[in-house]
Amino acid sequence: MAVQARFLPLSDVAEILNISISQARALVRSGELPAIRVGGRGQWRVENTELENYIQRMYREVRDEVSQRD
Questions:
Q1: How many domains does the chain have?
Q2: Looking at the domain assignment, is residue 2 inside a domain?
Q3: In a domain, 56, yes or no
């Protein structure tokens, strides 16, 4: 049985969201997507739950935008 990683590197985040790594980094640096820095080189990592929260928040924002237009 494979163990799912709790924290994802930005390359995985970018792949999941279908965006570039620089776009994923911008989301983290802006604070829109919470992340931590780990290791000697300070690699960004995003917790799975934070990524899911971000995705759900984006769905809510789009729903709100669409409902306001109607």
A1: 1
A2: no
A3: yes
pTM: 0.87
Cα–Cα distance, 49 to 58 (Å, whole number): 14
Going by C-alpha positions, the residue among 19, 20, 9 that lies closest to residue 55 is 19
CA distance 57 to 49: 12
In a domain, 57, yes or no: yes
Name the pLDDT band for 20 (thresholds 50, 70, 90).
very high
Q: Which domain holds residue 20?
A: 7-69
DSSP assignment of 6-41 equals SEEEHHHHHHHHT--HHHHHHHHHHTSS--EEETTT
